[in-house]
Amino acid sequence: MENSLSEQALDEGRMLNDVAIGLRKNFHALRRIVLCGLALAGLAGQAWAQGDNGVVLPSLEQSIARELSARPASREWDVVRTTYERRGFAPIWVDAERRSALIAAVEESRADGLEPADYGIAQLRASAPARPAEDPSVVAAREVLFTGSLAKLVRHLRYGKVDPRSLHSMWNFSPLPDTGALAAQLQGVLDGESLPAAVAAQAPQVDAYRNLRAALARFRELERAGGWVRIAAGPSLSAGDRGPRVAALRARLLASGDLATPGGANGDRFDDALVSAVKRFQTGHGLDADGAVGKATLEALNVPVTERISRIRANLERWRWVAADIDPDLLLVDVAGFRAELRLANQPVWSTRVVVGRPSRETPSLLDSVQHLVLNPKWVVPPTILREDVIPGMRRNPGYLDSHRLRLVDRSGRTVDASVVDWAGQGGSFPYQVVQSSGADGSLGQIKFALGNRYSIYLHDTPSRALFNRASRAYSSGCVRVQNPQELAVLLLDDPTQWSPEALKAAIATGKTRTVPVNRDITVMLLYYTADADASGAVHFRKDIYGRDARLLSALSS
């Protein structure tokens, strides 16, 4: 009887093996075969399972395969399944030190503004200790738990937790890699000599991210110490003032690192050192740096440290979204900071002030490249401005086009008499273009930096120079106005012989519209950051001009 059962089990096992080999390319069919085979083999006390390469799996590997088969189809679990399939379902977490290393890495995720609870930290701690004579199903469950946790953490550190497309309709940065590539990245982390180091290396390896991460640690220390003192409401404070509100101001700026020394016996006096500290704070927060504490500065000073921590977390996430697309040669437009910076070979070589879209016409976050320059560009009014400004303007005032130096042209480029158009009846499609001829007083100034997007977003010069003197510079209809466009043009043209600064000025002086190719292949990023930090530890917070932080923080916390 005993021999008969053994032969029966062997026959059934061979049958299972042959069938599974034929179906190994169909994973879901394979899982059904595995489970049926387990039921058959169980009659004889045998344990069988099938990997995707047709090899019969031992008991633990079989249990891992069965545990994975119970998981739902999702990006995370597909990555875990693929990882185990590629290793023949061999276990990963049999070593207790390795399990402890993952727990440490998950706990450290908080330093990146993430939440360890998202990676099952409580479950990891509870299941980490191994017990004598554990059932393979228990070990398999632990395997899948730990690998699933690591897969999610790696993806979040590398690409962000929140899908930016859910918050930005025009988002065009690189999408997530496919399942196979994500599984390869996960295996690369597992193959590293030090698991915590390999996990940490998944976060963006750029100074901006590292500096913000260090700032988060410092602000959390401030939070643990009770935060900073709140300055009572009252009249503006300025140089020469004395009193308890000045002492509170000094303590507040000491806490945030904007002031270096306490001030001793004169701590309640608004001295020169305090003026400099206030100016430093104002500059770092996008305020007019006048050295006095008026309403706007007082409001910024009294923002709680917890709120500042949240803003740092939001901006760490924004860097994770774009890290994969950062190139050594990069033109970065910091929309909320109202600045643009050109980096060559990862080093900043030029920066300037910019004017960006007003809140009703936001400058979008975009990945792009400079296609060419246009000298003395004409301006073709984009659809939004046509619909919201020009057509209503003509309804109110028939002289609107003339007063803005605009003209109407048909599809063949011929000028059309605006008086023959029924402006009151214009609603849907508009059969004409509205064009402004080139000139120093034209809306695009003397240079346009053409990009490749389909949203009519680009960088350009402007005749409205006074706006660059303002601390807050959100006034455009979405495009980016550049304070020093000729400097940027010379750098992008990268041809000292043909395109020196003098040669560029001479070409502009002709008044002729001219398209000029650029010699540098420059990636352009239009990004939105409401907090950044520098290597010295100074943290700069900007006004959330488009109100984007709240939605991002809500998604980060969900």
Characterization of the model:
It is built from 19 helices and 16 strands. By secondary structure, the protein is α+β, with helices and mostly antiparallel strands. Among the domains are: 57-200, no CATH class; 326-535, L,D-transpeptidase catalytic domain-like (Beta Barrel). Strands 1-2-3-12-10-9-4-14 form an eight-stranded mixed β-barrel. A hairpin with a 7-residue loop joins strand 9 and strand 10.
Unreliable stretches (pLDDT < 50, length at least 5) are 1-56
Label the CATH architecture of the domain at 326-535.
Beta Barrel
CATH superfamily grouping of the domain at 326-535: L,D-transpeptidase catalytic domain-like
In total, the number of strands is 16
Strand order of the largest sheet: 1-2-3-12-10-9-4-14
Number of helices: 19
CATH class of the domain at 326-535: Mainly Beta
CATH fold call of the domain at 326-535: L,D-transpeptidase catalytic domain-like
Helix content: 40-55%
Computed CA radius of gyration, to the nearest angstrom: 31 Å
Computed structural class: alpha+beta
Strand content: 5-15%
- Identify the overall geometry: globular
Question: How far apart lie the N and C ends?
Answer: 60 Å
Topology, please?
Layout: H1 2-22, H2 27-42, H3 59-69, H4 75-86, H5 96-108, H6 121-127, H7 136-159, H8 179-190, H9 195-200, H10 207-224, H11 244-256, H12 272-284, H13 295-301, H14 305-322, E1 330-334, E2 339-344, E3 347-357, E4 366-375, E5 379-380, H15 383-396, H16 400-403, E6 406-409, E7 415-416, E8 433-436, E9 447-451, E10 459-460, E11 474-476, E12 480-482, H17 485-493, H18 501-509, E13 514-517, E14 523-527, E15 531-533, E16 539-541, H19 549-557
Parallel strand pairs: 1-14, 3-11, 10-12
Antiparallel strand pairs: 1-2, 2-3, 3-12, 4-9, 4-13, 4-14, 5-8, 6-7, 6-8, 9-10, 15-16
Helix pairs in contact: 1-2, 2-3, 3-7, 4-7, 4-8, 6-7, 7-8, 7-14, 10-14, 14-19
